Structure prediction request, 1388 residues.
Amino acid sequence: MRKLVLGLCLIAQPGLADEGMWTFDNFPTAQVKQKYGVELSDAWLKRLQRSVTRHESGCTGSFVSPDGLVLTNHHCVMACLAKLSSEQDDLVENGFHAATRANERRCPSEIISVLVDTEEITSQVNASTAGLSKEQANAVRKQTLSRLEAGCAEKSQENRATGPLACESVSLYQGGQYFLYKYKRYEDVRLAFAPHESIAAFGGDPDNFNFPRWCLDFSLLRVYQDGKPARTPHYLRLRPAGARAGEPVFVAGHPGNTSRLLTVDQLAFQRDTSTSSYLIRNSELRGRLTQWGKTGGEQLRIIQDPLNRLENGLKAYRGLQRALLDERLFSQKKAQEADLRRRVAGSAELAREAGAAWDEIAAAQERYRQIYDRYLFLESGAGFNSKLFDYARVLVRGAAERGKPNEQRLREYSESNLPKLAASLLGATPVYPDLEQLTFSFSLDKLRETLGPDDPIVRRLLNKESPESLAEQLVTHTMLADPAVRKTLWDGDPRAIAQSNDPMIALAREVDAEARAVRRIYEDEVQASVAAAQEKIAKARFSLYGANIYPDAAFTLRLSYGIVEGWVEKGKSIAPFTTLGRLYERATGRAPFRLPQVWLDAREELNPDTPFNYATTNDIVGGNSGSPVVDAQGRLVGLAFDGNIHSIAGSYWYDPDKNRATAVHPAIVLTALREVYGAHALVQEIMGKGASAQ
Amino acid sequence: MRKLVLGLCLIAQPGLADEGMWTFDNFPTAQVKQKYGVELSDAWLKRLQRSVTRHESGCTGSFVSPDGLVLTNHHCVMACLAKLSSEQDDLVENGFHAATRANERRCPSEIISVLVDTEEITSQVNASTAGLSKEQANAVRKQTLSRLEAGCAEKSQENRATGPLACESVSLYQGGQYFLYKYKRYEDVRLAFAPHESIAAFGGDPDNFNFPRWCLDFSLLRVYQDGKPARTPHYLRLRPAGARAGEPVFVAGHPGNTSRLLTVDQLAFQRDTSTSSYLIRNSELRGRLTQWGKTGGEQLRIIQDPLNRLENGLKAYRGLQRALLDERLFSQKKAQEADLRRRVAGSAELAREAGAAWDEIAAAQERYRQIYDRYLFLESGAGFNSKLFDYARVLVRGAAERGKPNEQRLREYSESNLPKLAASLLGATPVYPDLEQLTFSFSLDKLRETLGPDDPIVRRLLNKESPESLAEQLVTHTMLADPAVRKTLWDGDPRAIAQSNDPMIALAREVDAEARAVRRIYEDEVQASVAAAQEKIAKARFSLYGANIYPDAAFTLRLSYGIVEGWVEKGKSIAPFTTLGRLYERATGRAPFRLPQVWLDAREELNPDTPFNYATTNDIVGGNSGSPVVDAQGRLVGLAFDGNIHSIAGSYWYDPDKNRATAVHPAIVLTALREVYGAHALVQEIMGKGASAQ
Prediction:
């Protein structure tokens, strides 16, 4: 019951709990001072902001030296490790340690960004859509955002202080505010250090989202500029002893997304439609990948990274489903919504502006339900689960879209997004044909299962083929596994793509019209209505509750506050810290509870009381992985890597009693680097004694 | 909306729709006469009852000759075909045709029963539990049923007319009535004919539960007695032309179970707890099995039967989940329940007797939720998915239980159930070690995932092992794959089992105490409360609505009425019949849309207008597979094999607009036997010209 009462306070009286993923320019410093006696200055915030890195692959990190050294999670570099590995040299299993900077290895496709500045553009966006129909507004809004992004990027070219910036528009509070976020980009990201995966992810999927926990989930990257380590004057200093139990701590990072401001109908859509669909489909894929991994050592190696990601997603979605099936969640959400609607109805102006918004969203969700499967399978990728197909689609659509004016393109082909798109298309990522055939044939099979064998597009694709035979042909005969081929096509005349005989390109062309058609329906009949209605609700909310609220997460920079603290689980107290000694007791010798030999060898020399992982009350979600945890002095006291099982429900609400973030303790990071891996130069650099070596 | 209105009539005014799986002794003949002008006599009912077979593996069939020939679905003999097959001789892929009766092959473990008589025992059961606490009543009720079953079986020994009968107690109307059902048992069941699986299950999983459909889903078995074909004077005569569109037809069979009388809280439990759990776990297993099947031809053969069953279950559960997430279903159920509770509250006596029953069920469901995972994994088999483990558990428990007086045993070890248990334990079923390791390690993995790596029993089992290594050891070293070993242990001194070093038996012993403990909690704290409360509701329902209602399905004999009719899907009329011609057009040449060569060869000689499958409005569910469809004259006009996708929601309600049963037409059965497979003796026997050949 306590949760319900506090939960209802989410909007009316925020800040009683350690709740919220706050933007830096609206951080509740007064509340934090009142609650914890900690005063955070603007300089403190500014320094922290410039020290935090956004990893475009979906993580966070922080600079820990003036030479561009970035501390992040091990699981944030898993994709890089996998891409750099081969059957002969497995960086996932064996870890990686660049003996010197010259040995640091570049991660293909990795981009790291640092938020330099933000600029509110709400009035420009709203002015551009005033008086338009929902469908028109939805299209024009995108055009405006593309235009403002391009203008911002162009202007930054002349800014001596910052150098060229990448500009991304951000919608906060469900369209209540629009911002341009301006990033410094690092496209040359190299791997400096990663421990063995078996200790970084000790406990594997069974322990994921659990606590107590023993994961050495850290790694070190370095950003380069012009072929040299970048100068990064803003960085965090390590506090080796970490924070004490009960001490206030702050997590800065890029939470991916939350759904706390959704309407009841939108939540019901997630509960009844998208979550089940995801879980059932991907559980089957999990089984396929797992079993394939058992067919050989190389298969096992190849499968590890995609399988980890899939299992992480499944565990998270399972938690979301549990939260959505929790009667208390819907009771609270219904009560909140009823309260807001009552207040809106109580004001003639608000009622006129926003009174119908909830029903408009409900109608849009119903429309979404009707087209969901088709949209998911034809446009959102569920029907064509293949890297090679993704390449083909980007090439086919890129050829069509890049020929149009910037503002007329599909948003992901706008100028501001092209560098990321190109990095991903052109990176030297290994393609494993057997795995491609597996995922591709699986997705074609689900396409047929979901749309039915008599659906016209299914019949066209599988007229005389099975999903297996079609996938085999396409994967075997396409040339797109070669990055040079992709580059030639991307850089060349778009007509080459229109005329290409490459079978994967032919398939991407073949389904493009139907995919665009269902996307059009989605954008005009679902997204447009939802965007318009959400904007009305957002304005009503500002008008009724004021600006002292935080927006849903959007993979943009946020700050959360909290303290180091365990919780009570089924009547039992969970201590906030774990220590090294228990790790050894818990090892079974079998994956995922197996320790690397170097750790077994070092056991006697290490202090069993060394803190390992710890829990805090900070409000974070996926995307915060690798986020620095800092103390009131701004010193680095750990890095977030997960949350407990209750934190998954954090997508919908924050439960102060149970929701905990989990972090890697700085003591175990130093112990690992110094005493197990002998990475003395890195330790010196982090501890501030090697910074001038460069 | 029409569904809601009609649905509400389910209890107050049954019979407006073609709804209900009626017992033979409470069939609404007057209603049928009024609606369709068809008068069914007692003799008609009696003859039909004695012609219908119950297949203990979960199907229905019917006698189609006086020599014990049984017509049922192909998918009902899939397990038998798989058991009789080997790498060299694949009866699933190639079909089977016994050239003479001497070539008919015995199905291991198959038992067929015919319902001879029923006897109501409600008063004896109620008298035995009067005045007892819920927990006591729950235990004593089982004792009473075991005692009455044993007494019935003993008495039948002396009955010259019937010979020895198997007696099973049946609870109808959620404990509102108890019956003894008395069966004649045939334990020697032989395979006479089965077509190729690729035409029997044409369209495979994609087409399953869909219509229009082209499945030649029939087979022929024969029951033997004393080594000779049994004399079966009650049998059905075929009407080769089948029934016309709109003609009344009747389906007799053994629907497995429905949940139409459950309370709203019980449905919510299914929606929120058991259904998701089933779907997610088994979707992953589906992926594992599918992928394993791709590792070789023999693996593909082995996997087919278990995978078909799993996929069928998944598709059904997915449908159940959809139904449970349909707001209209819960609205209707809530309205019905509110109506019944209002009426109960309106009578002082009923209120005293049953007023609290719904809340008692709700409390029991909450308790169930708490123990669900533990019960499912330790006691219900989800944690130990292995035939060999099942054998071990039956041996371990059998040794303990058979030493007790009949009434004190776990119900499945009561005398009346031992023959079925022994048939399943001792049958010469092939065991495939690699598959065993797969399913067993998978289930151990899920056990750990679900209960957590720190659960005491998980730690005990997997202290120094992984799920894979443990499964491998146990499967490799157990001797239980050998039926002779199982027989020696089953027939021998129970101490041999207590002292056995067989590792699978040791495991079954190891987990038995914990499994029994959670079963005890389930029985005392969930089942006992639910049984007591349901009985109260059942009595209130009889008292308020009278006896003109049908009970939920319980894999006992039922009769449903309806007509041959299609339905309207998204504004489009679906015709009730399919024909052979379209089958050929639909074949892609790739499984599961591939036709056997003999059918491709025969194409030109066959009449493309031959009716193939058809739809009827009869109310049936799983367990009805193989059920005879008969006309008003009692002639066989087809056999049920499936329902359309809407029929899955039939577990919870019957929708007259959409819910359709699907059946195999007699014309295609005769065409196949005569013109494709040349099974002339069987045709003669079915057509009544070969009956005297024996």
